[in-house]
Specification:
Layout lengths: L4 H15 L28 H37 L2 H26 L15 H31 L5 H31 L3 H4 L3 H30 L2 H30 L6 H12 L4 E13 L2 E10 L5 H18 L5 E6 L4 H4 L3 H4 L6
Parallel strand pairs: 2-3
Antiparallel strand pairs: 1-2
Helix pairs in contact: 1-10, 2-3, 2-5, 2-7, 3-4, 3-7, 3-8, 4-8, 5-7, 7-8
């Protein structure tokens, strides 16, 4: 960098403050401006936001289908479990109640995460999606897994006396539940395919939770049916108790996986490495950038990513030119990567080792 690095840095930060306030947050000088400086945030692939809204509508339908199925099944399982005195069936009823409550959490996530940014939350409410998904995971663990363990241990300790007619009723209830859960699971998997399939189709935590719940429910009902059938044939309650314990282990594992994913997002997970690599490549390809000293990314929501880069510009650039370069680079990032809607550039001439510190650690406004 030339001897005017401090002047260039101030100019770049001025451009950042006046042209690209994060997420449209209001600034002291007037109304909010879209990321990119002049509205270029919407210059990405046509229909990005419309597609997101459409995907949310499909996800909402999927969640509602799962909610209705779980409510009906919970009532049927509870009635059948009481009639049959079946711990496995009662465990499945608790599982369905937990799933029903979780669908309510997911509906709240879909509604609240799309609220626009405001002065209190300048980066928007995208992480609400991860928060409610975490609550859903806790619900699966407490209401489903723990109750299943309780029922299993109670059956082993005290035994159970069931009537043949009660078992027949219980197996019929589980058969109906298996069909209903299977229909809900097929609906969720159909949406996953519509959204790209594989990991891409499961990036929405609400949809991922529904798939996990329905898949677990199908497997849990199968275990409960097997436990009840073996108990009825052999007269040994250990089979049904074991099925209840197995359902508990399954639910705890699913809750752990869902909770871990939500935790990673809430504490600030970086963007996909492939996306980060493409962003770095675009920055390095700019003729005015000598080097990219540091690049930090963080997922702020389902389709919102914060990008903070510390760059070293070519020597000899005038301060006015630095301002133009900063604005143009941000617009280019916004056009190329629509999800990168929060972009911060910090111009520096420090050694790479020092520049590698996080923007927050340095306390500099340009990397805030």
């Amino acid at each position: 960098m030339s001897g005017t690095s401090s002047e260039q840095e101030r100019a770049a930060r001025t451009a950042e403050s006046s042209a690209t306030r994060p997420g449209g947050a209001p600034g002291p000088e007037g109304p909010p401006a879209p990321a990119g400086g002049d509205g270029d945030r919407t210059a990405g692939p046509p229909g990005d936001r419309r597609d997101d809204t459409e995907a949310d509508r499909h996800t909402k339908v999927t969640v509602l289908v799962a909610l209705v199925a779980n409510l009906v099944i919970a009532v049927a399982k509870a009635a059948g479990g009481v009639l049959a005195g079946s711990p496995a069936l009662l465990s499945e009823a608790a599982h369905s109640v937990a799933d029903s409550l979780n669908e309510v959490f997911l509906l709240a996530a879909l509604r609240r995460s799309r609220r626009p940014a405001d002065a209190r939350h300048p980066f928007g409410y995208g992480k609400e999606r991860f928060f409610w998904s975490l609550l859903a995971a806790v619900g699966i663990f407490v209401m489903g897994g723990c109750f299943s363990f309780f029922q299993g241990f109670e059956a082993l300790r005290g035994g159970a006396e069931e009537k043949f007619s009660g078992y027949v009723a219980g197996l019929i209830v589980l058969g109906v539940a298996l069909v209903a859960e299977g229909v809900s699971l097929l609906r969720a998997l159909h949406q996953v395919r519509r959204q790209g399939g594989g990991l891409a189709g499961l990036r929405d935590p609400a949809l991922r939770t529904v798939v996990a719940e329905d898949g677990t429910a199908v497997l849990g009902v199968t275990l409960a049916m097997a436990g009840m059938a073996l108990h009825m044939v052999t007269g040994q309650v250990v089979w049904e108790a074991s099925a209840s314990l197995a359902i508990g282990v399954l639910l705890v594992y699913v809750a752990y996986r869902l909770g871990r994913d939500a935790r990673d997002q809430l504490i600030g997970a970086a963007a996909d490495p492939e996306l980060s690599g493409r962003i770095r490549a675009l920055l390095q390809a700019q003729p005015e950038i000598d080097s990219v000293e540091a690049l930090f990314t963080m997922q702020m929501g389902l389709d919102s990513t914060l990008v903070a880069a510390r760059i070293d510009l070519m020597p000899g650039l005038e301060s006015e030119r630095v301002e133009e370069v900063a604005v143009r680079i941000k617009r280019s990032l916004a056009r190329t990567f629509p999800e990168a809607d929060q972009v911060f550039l910090d111009v520096t001439d420090r050694p790479a080792g020092e520049a590698g510190e996080s923007p927050a650690a340095t306390g500099e406004r340009g990397g805030a």
